[in-house]
Design brief:
This protein is mostly helical and about 450 residues long. The chain has a domain at about 70-290. It is built from 22 helices and no strands. It has helices at about 15-30, 35-50, 55-65, 75-85, 90-100, 105-120, 125-145, 150-165, 170-180, 180-190, 190-210, 225-230, 235-250, 255-270, 280-310, 315-325, 330-345, 350-365, 370-385, 395-400, 405-430, 435-440. The relative contact order is 0.15.
């Protein structure tokens, strides 16, 4: 058997930093993140191995880390969200809640936030939530004279709620990368998600009180019977959510099984309510396959890049340096938060997680932080990234849905909510039990 050739370069933290720099440059040049990670990962591993046995290592590593049972959650949760979107249950919930809350100060924006929180319990996708609910809420707010900053800012931040309330695709991604308990991270995101919803509602109310011209009160009135009937409209989504979360919390089924049960429950609910058609089903299935195909390829590329980082021992180098230089674990956590906020200016969420989490995860674990707790912080920082221009996917999706607002109007509208998300992140840093109390009871 022939011996493997000597490596072209020795795998050291220096070359890990070079790989990270190359990935950042390619991202800034607008090269798709999956292609960037794949090119850099493959190129650096070839340098480290010195021959084409690197290809065998890359293939084994990429397939072994993506062909996991837990990966089945991605297509199932995506399918569930698309089915809910096609069924019109989100629009029904908005109409029902509008009859109850529409005449309060900032009522339509508050209804939008509440409906997005409900939709997030069965979707887990920020963009899907904005498109599904914003497509109904924004035209209504425009019709009632809401200013572009308020209507767009409130909808843009509402997508962040879906990223935090389980089932969260961002949480699943973090758990796949770090091998953290998905069930515990789902449960840990529940209370922070509810707190964020209340904080956003408070900001909307204060905005509408201070600047009433931005949110004129609705003059539409509804009979008491119709208003009470509006209470029933959120129930289908709540029932599906409670069914999944109760099953996970009580150990009746795993998160992957919960995803499958959620899809089944959604189809049954659509059939019972007379909203199921084969056209809707196949449309949702087609969109889910397209999205997951992209995610699967991107995840395989991310594993290739992560292999490069692991071989270079850069994460361990950073962990040793941080622990030797910074005395306080809290200071280390704040340092990581600042780095992620800065990265949010240049990288979209997927790239940020795949590039930075493997680097800093060993640091926080050695500093004594619970991986589940750090996962909640990471999801919060991903939400900050969703609102941070020039990347800011939530801003551009909201502008597209609105069709009439300028980018600066949307950015100005998100600023109070951006501060709100950051405020909750700081609150979680100093009061971790907000996130960790509920998973501690499992």
């Amino acid at each position: 058997m022939e011996e493997r050739e000597d490596p072209m370069v020795e795998a050291t933290p220096f070359w890990g930093a070079i790989a990270l720099s190359c990935l950042l440059v390619l991202s800034l040049l607008s090269v798709p993140i999956a292609a960037s990670m794949g090119i850099v990962g493959l190129g650096m591993v070839l340098l480290f191995y010195g021959d084409f046995t690197a290809l065998q290592f890359i293939a084994t590593s990429a397939w072994g880390n993506t062909a996991k049972y837990s990966m089945s959650m991605f297509p199932l949760f995506i399918l569930m969200g698309n089915l809910i979107a096609k069924s019109g249950l989100g629009e029904d919930a908005f109409d029902g809640l509008n009859k109850l809350l529409g005449r309060t100060r900032g009522g339509l924006a508050m209804v939008s936030t509440t409906t997005c929180a409900l939709f997030g319990t069965v979707s887990g996708s920020s963009s899907s939530t904005i498109i599904a609910i914003g497509g109904t809420a924004i035209p209504e707010m425009r019709r009632h004279g809401y200013s572009a900053p308020l209507r767009c800012g409130s909808v843009a931040v509402n997508g962040c709620i879906a990223n935090l309330i389980p089932p969260s695709l961002a949480a699943v991604l973090y758990c796949v990368v770090t091998e953290t308990s998905i069930a515990k991270l789902f449960i840990a995101g529940l209370i922070p998600g509810l707190v964020l919803t209340v904080m956003i509602l408070a900001v909307i109310y204060i905005w509408a009180t201070v600047r009433p011209e931005d949110a004129p009160r609705s003059t539409e009135t509804y009979p008491l019977k119709e208003r009470l009937a509006g209470l029933r409209t959120p129930l289908p989504m709540l029932c599906i959510f409670v069914f999944m979360i109760a099953g996970i919390y009580n150990g009746f089924f795993s998160p992957a099984e919960a995803a499958g049960m959620g899809v089944l429950a959604t189809i049954v609910m659509m059939v019972v309510l007379g909203k199921f058609t084969w056209r809707k089903f196949f449309d949702a299935l087609s969109e889910s396959v397209k999205l997951f195909t992209f995610m699967f390829v991107a995840l395989m590329a991310a594993v290739m890049f992560a292999s490069t980082i692991a071989l270079s021992q850069l994460p361990q180098f950073i962990a040793d340096w941080a622990l030797a230089t910074v005395d306080s674990p809290l200071a280390i956590l704040y340092m990581i938060i600042v780095i992620f906020i800065i990265a949010g200016f240049f990288l979209e969420n997927f790239g940020m997680v795949m590039m930075l989490v493997p680097l800093f995860f060993p640091v926080v674990v050695q500093a004594g932080f619970d991986p589940v707790y750090f996962g909640v912080i990471m999801v919060m920082l991903m939400e900050v990234g969703l609102l941070t221009p020039p990347a800011a996917p939530n801003i551009y999706v909201t502008q597209y849905v609105d069709g009439g607002a300028g980018v600066m109007e949307v950015i100005n509208g998100t600023l109070p909510f951006y501060v709100t998300v950051l405020g909750l992140t700081v609150l979680l840093v100093h009061y971790p039990m907000i996130a960790m109390w509920l998973p501690g009871t499992m």
